[in-house]
Amino acid sequence: MRLGSVPHVSATTTKRGERPAYRCAECGWTTAKWVGRCGECQAWGTVVEGLGPGGGAPRTAAVAPTRSPARSIVEIPVESAAARPTGVAELDRVLGGGIVPGAVVLLAGEPGVGKSTLLLDVAARAARGGRRVLYVTGEESAAQVRLRAGRIRALDPNLLLADETDLATVLGHVEQVSPDLLVLDSVQTIASAQVEGTAGGVAQVREVASALIQTAKARDLPVVLIGHVTKDGSVAGPRTLEHLVDVVCQFEGERHSRLRLLRATKNRYGPTDEVGCFDLSDTGILGVEDPSGLFVSQAIHAVPGTCLTVTLEGRRPLATEIQALVAPSAAPNPRRTTSGVDSSRLAMVLAVLQRRLGVRLADQDVYVSTVGGARAVEPAADLALALAAVSSRQEQALPRGLVAIGEVGLAGEIRTVTGVTQRLAEAARLGFTRAIVPAGALDEVRPPEGLTTVAAADLVEAVAEVLMDV
Fold first, then answer.
1. φ, ψ dihedrals at 317, nearest 5°
2. Radius of gyration (Cα) for the chain, nearest Å?
3. According to the model, what pLDDT value does residue 468 have?
4. Which residues of the sequence carry a binding annotation for ATP (predicted)?
5. Cα dihedral 223, 195, 239, 243 in deg (nearest 10)
6. What pLDDT does 60 receive?
7. Neighbour tally for 125: CB within 10 Å
8. Residue 299 has what pLDDT?
9. 75 carries a ligand binding annotation
C-alpha cells in the first residue's frame, strides 16, 4: 500500500466481534451472504442485510410505567368484546356470531371471486343499522365503487367512501370520520412513505397491517382487510400478516359457478370449522341458508350412473350428487376424467371394484363429476362414487331416495366416517328414505325417523343391496 493512501472501507463493515449477515424478514433465518430466496421458509425477496446471531450487543429496554395495574381475569368485563352481527347470516356463522370490536379480519380470495362485493354489502347493511362505515378503496376509483354499490343496492348516507393509497392519509380519514367499521380494499395497495419499497412488498404490507391493527385496538374499531392470494391459493405478502390479524377467512369459488364458500382458517373469537355459502349474481351476493338443493339434479326419472352422498364442509352437511359415465374406450390407455372429485381416490375405487368385485373397467373410459360445482373430496364419498360407477357400467339406475355414506378400503371393506349422525339427519330432512352406511356406524348412531338405514360391511354387500345383477 502506498504511503498516505487510505484503505477501502465497505459499507457493511461492522465493529470487531460483529459478523455481517443477512436475515429473513419472514422467519428470522440468517445466512452469511445474500440470497434471493430464504432457505427456511422459501419466501422470495425477504432476505435483508442485518446482524447475525453472534453479532452486536444484546438490546434491552428501560422499565416504563404501566398505564393501569394488572387485574384479576375474573374482574375484567366482557360486554365490550361481544360480537356484533353484520347482518349477513352466513358471514356471522363463519365469524362466530359477528365482528368483535377491535378485531382485524383478513378476507382473502382469488380475483373476481366476489370479495369486494361481499364487503360492500356488509358495509351497507352496517350503515343501514345506524353505524358509520368508512370504506377505503385502493384498487378502484370512488366512482367505480359507487357504480357497483348502485347495482347491488348498497347505498346509504352513513357509508363513507374514500379512494386512497397512502397509509397516513387513511389514518387521517379514520381520525376525521371516527367510523364504527373500517373496510380496506385492499391491504396490498396501501403504502407508507416511512418505509422503503413498493406497495404490496413485504415491508410495506407489514407496516400497513401493524398500523391498522394498532388503530383498531386503540379505538375498539373493527377492521376488515381484503387480501390478495398467490397462484397456489395462499395469502400474498409476509406470513406474519396472518399471525398479526385476529381472523383469516378464505373466499373460494369456481369462475363458472355462482356458488361461493367462505371458510375461516384462523379465528380467535370463534370456530374454524364453519362454512358460509353464498350465491353470486349480477345483482349482488346473497347468503344461501340451504345449499343442498344446488348440488342435486332435478331429473324426474332415475338415471344410471348417479348416486347421492352427504359431505361435511366443516360442521355443515351438504347433500351432493355424484355422476359417473362409463363408456367403452378404443385407446390403449382409457381416460379417467374428474370434476369436483379427487382423481387419486377415483383411481383407487376403480381398482378395488375391478379386483374385489370383478367389474371390468380396464377397457372403459370413466368420467366422474359432481352437480352444481360441489367438491366431494373426502373419503366419505367413496361409497357413492363406487355405486355410481357400477350403476353406469351395468346400465342400471339406483333406487330413488337412496344416499350412500362410507369410505372404501383397499380390501373392499366399508369403513365408518365422522359425522354420520349429522349426515343422516340432513338426508332425512331432504326427504331421502334409504341410506347405506358402514356396518360399524350403526352401533353408535340412531337413525332419524323416516330414514331406513342398511348396514354394509363391504362393497359386495353394498352393491348387492341396490344392484342385483352384478
1. -80, 135
2. 28
3. 63
4. 109-116
5. -40
6. 62
7. 19
8. 61
9. no
- The answer to whether 113 is annotated as binding is yes
Question: Is the per-residue pLDDT at 5 higher than 60?
Answer: no
Q: Say whether 116 counts as a known binding-site residue.
A: yes
C-alpha to C-alpha distance for 354 and 349, rounded to whole angstroms: 9
Please identify which residue in the block is written with the cell numbers 362485493. 117
Helix (H) or strand (E) holding 349: helix 343-356
User: What is the distance between the alpha carbons of residues 361 and 350, in angstroms, rounded to a whole number?
Assistant: 7
Residue of 365 and 231 predicted with greater confidence: 365
Q: Which grid cell sits at 352?
A: 378395488
Q: Is 246 exposed, middle or buried (0-12, 13-18, 19+ CB in 10 A)?
A: buried
CA distances from 83 to 167, 270, 408, 435 (A): 27, 10, 42, 39
Binding site annotation covers 115? Answer: yes
What is this structure's pTM?
A: 0.76
Which residue's entry shows cell 366399508? 414
Q: Which of 135, 354, 351, 306 is nearest to 226 (CA)?
A: 135
Q: Confidence band (pLDDT; 50, 70, 90) for 59?
A: low
Lowest-confidence pick of 42-46, 127-131, 406-410, 422-426: 42-46
User: Is 15 labeled as ligand-binding?
Assistant: no
Does 352 carry a binding-site annotation? Answer: no
Are 328 and 419 in contact by the 8 Å Cβ rule? The answer is: no
Buried b / exposed e along 214-223 (16+ C-beta atoms within 10 A): ebbeebebbb
Distance of CA 133 to the CA centre of its chain: 26
Q: β-strand 452-456 against 30-31: which pairing, if any?
A: unpaired
Residue 111 assigned to a binding site: yes
Cα dihedral across residues 7, 12, 17, 19: positive or negative: negative
The answer to whether 409 is annotated as binding is no
Say if CB 341 and CB 311 are below 8 A apart: no
* Residues 323-340: tens digit of each pLDDT: 999 999 988 899 999 999
Distance CA 144, CA 458 (A): 58
Express each pLDDT in 131-186 by its tens digit: 999 999 999 999 999 999 999 999 999 999 999 999 999 999 999 999 999 999 99
CA distances from 187 to 13, 119, 154, 229 (A): 36, 14, 22, 12
Q: Is the pLDDT of residue 201 over 50?
A: yes
Q: Which secondary structure element, helix H or strand E, spans residue 203, and what is its range?
A: helix 202-219
- Mean pLDDT in residue range 432-436: 93
